[in-house]
């Protein structure tokens, strides 16, 4: 009997699985992709899009066309629950879908959404519709002639979004005197995991772009017009962007899968759930039992992709899964500063310049070209 492989979410790692299916590297199986997202958006290029460097088409892949090109079924609904023992998931419309092997690449949700007002008055970075709304809100400020933007979160995403917001305003000639942009971080430094020297470069880039940085600041409440910090500090904010760190979707811990303390699925070096070997997980939603401190960063999801595809092929062939994944110790960080430059960091080393932005652009475009080409071909063939 032909087994069913269910792919929950179309995160970066699952693009490699679809590529393997298209190239005939998985054994015969029924494949179902469950996602309500119309477009797969490459997160690394979103700040560039907000800042005007890219068109939306350059950082997005048509999900339906990509699934059709790989010959898989698309179920246009999000998975909201899993029953590992019964081998089934529940979709957001209430239906149950059975599987023999399941792979999760559902990413994460923003941390801190229990802070009063954050859900109602702040814009998260996912899904894409939220980022498009951020762009419209910033454009409205430009039309109005003044306003304040506050980004909550001092990690890579928050820094790039703040600098991109400044770049977007600069494109329409909005002066920094009347458009304040702030980054609020609970950590003592920006992007705290990379050390003080790298943080100093990030702070200089923010200063150069007239983005004010507030470190060691705890958000207590968000209103439509202000962000309230501990110590009775208040920042005016017409547009509040929520770019906090990752948190686990609650349903991951409610379906019989072993999870770590934060609620992410605990996997072994084969990317299998340690409690349910027929369930795999990759990207932000997974934590390696052998390397629990691994960052929740897109680069790891991308590196997991080829390993996940091979591991799933072995599982579907009823073989013992032999494929293993080991995270790299260092990863190259390229921070788009919104002014045609980027800051590069590798371990303790860092440098900046236009060359770093060209490198980032080349890497990002290569990723998109790899996975969007077949989708474009299928869409074009279908229209003829």
Task: Classify the secondary structure makeup into a structural class.
Answer: alpha/beta
Task: Give the termini separation.
Answer: 36 Å
Helix content range: 25-40%
- Average pLDDT metric: 94
Work out the number of β strands: 25
Tell me the Rg in angstroms.
Answer: 21 Å
Order of strands across the main sheet:
5-2-1-9-21
Low-confidence stretches: none
Major β-sheet, in short? 5 strands, parallel
Q: Kindly estimate the percentage of residues that lie in beta strands according to DSSP.
A: 25-35%
Oligomeric status: single chain
Number of helices: 9
Tell me, briefly, the overall form.
Answer: globular
Characterization of the model:
- It is a single chain.
- By secondary structure, the protein is an alpha/beta fold.
- The chain has helices at residues 12-22, 46-50, 63-70, 118-121, 128-144, 156-171, 196-208, 298-316, 354-383, and strands at residues 4-8, 30-34, 39-41, 60-62, 73-75, 79-83, 88-91, 96-98, 101-104, 109-110, 123-124, 147-152, 179-184, 211-214, 219-222, 226-229, 233-236, 239-242, 246-247, 265-267, 279-281, 286-288, 333-336, 342-346, 349-353.
- A five-stranded parallel beta sheet has the order 5-2-1-9-21, covered by helices on one side. The chain has a five-stranded parallel beta sheet with strand order 11-18-12-13-14.
- The radius of gyration is 21 Å and the shape is globular.
Keywords summarizing the entry:
alpha/beta; globular; 5-stranded parallel β-sheet; 384 residues
Question: Would you summarize the structure shown here?
Answer:
The chain is 32% helix and 25% strand. With 384 residues, it is of the alpha/beta class. Helix 1 (12-22) packs parallel to helix 3, helix 1 crosses helix 8 and helix 3 crosses helix 9 (354-383).
